[in-house]
Specification:
The chain is of the alpha/beta class. The protein has four helices and seven strands. Helix 1 runs parallel beside helix 4 (about 145-160).
């Protein structure tokens, strides 16, 4: 009999807003495996990573993978708990980037308080979660090796044999 997999640390819940301003709890969007990617249009590694995440979603979306791109283009002060100003400033850049790169991932924004609470000092920041919202891996920055490992971890989760740990 195989040993039970240890419980993973749960990723904190927070609110996101889509590009129309609709707010939802991020946990409502989770799948069997969920990739949260914090990015910005001005970030070179982010612009490389998002199309790779789009390919991953295209390949495994039908099997339970969810990829959420959380834009942090505009650094709203932490005391601001609304995203209206952020959306107004960032939406034209986000829309232009998505159109140019053929990325159709669901894109969200978070308020300044959430950005501060999540300590988003370095982007891209990619977090892989299991179906219960437990952290499987955290990738700070971007590299092809991270992308390869992420794909392997997603395959493991979807097959029910993921490993615990982080990078």
């Amino acid at each position: 009999m195989a040993a039970a997999e240890p419980a993973r640390q749960e990723f904190p819940g927070f609110q996101v807003s889509d590009l129309t301003g609709q707010t939802l709890g991020v946990k409502e969007l989770f799948g069997k495996a969920t990739v949260l990617n914090f990015w910005a249009t001005w970030c070179g590694p982010c612009r490389t990573e998002l199309p790779a995440l789009q390919s991953l979603l295209n390949e495994f979306g039908g099997k339970g993978l969810v990829v959420l791109a959380v834009d942090v283009d505009v650094q709203v002060p932490p005391e601001e708990d609304w995203v209206g100003q952020q959306l107004q400033l960032a939406k034209p850049r986000i829309d232009a980037f998505l159109q140019k790169s053929n990325v159709t991932l669901p894109v969200y924004v978070v308020d300044g308080k959430t950005q501060a609470e999540l300590n988003l000092e370095r982007i891209p920041l990619t977090v892989l979660l299991d179906g219960k919202g437990g952290v499987v891996r955290i990738y700070s920055g971007y590299s092809p090796a991270y992308s390869k490992d992420l794909r392997e971890q997603v395959l493991g989760i979807l097959a029910g044999r993921s490993q615990q740990g982080g990078k």
